[in-house]
Automatic annotation (TrEMBL):
<dbReference type="InterPro" id="IPR004518">
    <property type="entry name" value="MazG-like_dom"/>
</dbReference>
<feature type="domain" description="NTP pyrophosphohydrolase MazG-like">
    <location>
        <begin position="36"/>
        <end position="111"/>
    </location>
</feature>
<dbReference type="GO" id="GO:0047429">
    <property type="term" value="F:nucleoside triphosphate diphosphatase activity"/>
</dbReference>
<dbReference type="GO" id="GO:0046061">
    <property type="term" value="P:dATP catabolic process"/>
</dbReference>
<dbReference type="GO" id="GO:0046047">
    <property type="term" value="P:TTP catabolic process"/>
</dbReference>
<dbReference type="GO" id="GO:0004427">
    <property type="term" value="F:inorganic diphosphate phosphatase activity"/>
</dbReference>
<dbReference type="GO" id="GO:0046052">
    <property type="term" value="P:UTP catabolic process"/>
</dbReference>
<keyword id="KW-0378">Hydrolase</keyword>
<dbReference type="GO" id="GO:0046081">
    <property type="term" value="P:dUTP catabolic process"/>
</dbReference>
<dbReference type="GO" id="GO:0046076">
    <property type="term" value="P:dTTP catabolic process"/>
</dbReference>
<dbReference type="Pfam" id="PF03819">
    <property type="entry name" value="MazG"/>
</dbReference>
<protein>
    <submittedName>
        <fullName>Nucleoside triphosphate pyrophosphohydrolase/pyrophosphatase MazG</fullName>
        <ecNumber>3.6.1.1</ecNumber>
    </submittedName>
</protein>
<dbReference type="InterPro" id="IPR011551">
    <property type="entry name" value="NTP_PyrPHydrolase_MazG"/>
</dbReference>
<dbReference type="GO" id="GO:0006203">
    <property type="term" value="P:dGTP catabolic process"/>
</dbReference>
<dbReference type="GO" id="GO:0006950">
    <property type="term" value="P:response to stress"/>
</dbReference>
<dbReference type="InterPro" id="IPR048015">
    <property type="entry name" value="NTP-PPase_MazG-like_N"/>
</dbReference>
Length: 220
């Protein structure tokens, strides 16, 4: 067996995928892949992420494998782009090294001596660990992507509001919901009613969320 054959046999499936990407973007590879930029790939990353969510919610094993692969491929694509972009010049190994260090640093109860017993204990110190990583941030809102879907952004911001005592201010007392189906029906009814009256429900919620963020920053 040749040295090349031994190396190929020992190569992991992840390494093979990284190699495929390198070949596709190398001279003589795929013209489309070679022309892509971080910006041009954004729409595909968003689309693949939503397809993965659908696969997770369906519980279909084969679909989850496929869609996880599609999201992974996007990460590898961006890393390969960076490896040949002046001023960026990092690759997938740098991405993995950064993430490893980040996760080890955020889990001192696992990799260090700061033992925490419950998930609530972990969350209680999580924000402090993030602040240590990014000392330049002045607000708990810094770093929250404003392009998130409005409902997902609302849930994120309400969690931040809770920490400064604002989560229920200026809001009517909510009813007790029976289950997710009931909540979904009410939300759909609200969107339908708004649509009939010419109101963009997504935009309306985003406007209110901007106000909530201003309140949070003032409280901080």
């Amino acid at each position: 067996m040749s040295d090349d054959q031994i190396e190929k046999k020992e190569q992991s499936k992840l390494d093979e995928l990284i190699e495929v990407m390198a070949v596709l973007r190398a001279p003589g590879g795929c013209p489309w892949d070679a022309e892509q930029t971080h910006e041009s790939l954004i729409k595909y990353l968003v689309e693949e992420t939503y397809e993965l969510i659908d696969a997770i919610e369906s519980g279909n094993r084969e679909e989850m494998i496929e869609e996880l692969g599609d999201v992974l491929y996007q990460v590898i694509f961006h890393a390969d782009l960076a490896s040949t972009t002046p001023g960026e010049e990092f690759d997938i190994q740098d991405v993995a090294a950064h993430m490893t260090a980040k996760m080890v640093g955020r889990h001192p109860h696992v990799f260090g001596e700061n033992k925490l017993e419950t998930a609530d204990d972990v969350m209680a110190v999580w924000d402090d660990l993030k602040k240590q990583e990014k000392p330049g941030r002045t607000s708990t809102l810094d770093g929250i992507p404003q392009s998130m879907p409005a409902l997902a952004l609302a849930e994120k911001l309400l969690g931040k509001a809770e920490k400064v005592g604002l989560e229920k201010q200026h809001l009517p007392d909510p009813p007790i919901w029976a289950d997710e189906d009931e909540v979904g029906s009410i939300l759909l009814s609200i969107v339908s009613s708004a649509r009939e009256q010419g109101i963009d429900a997504e935009k309306a919620l985003r406007v209110r969320l901007r106000e909530l963020q201003e309140d949070i920053r003032e409280a901080e």
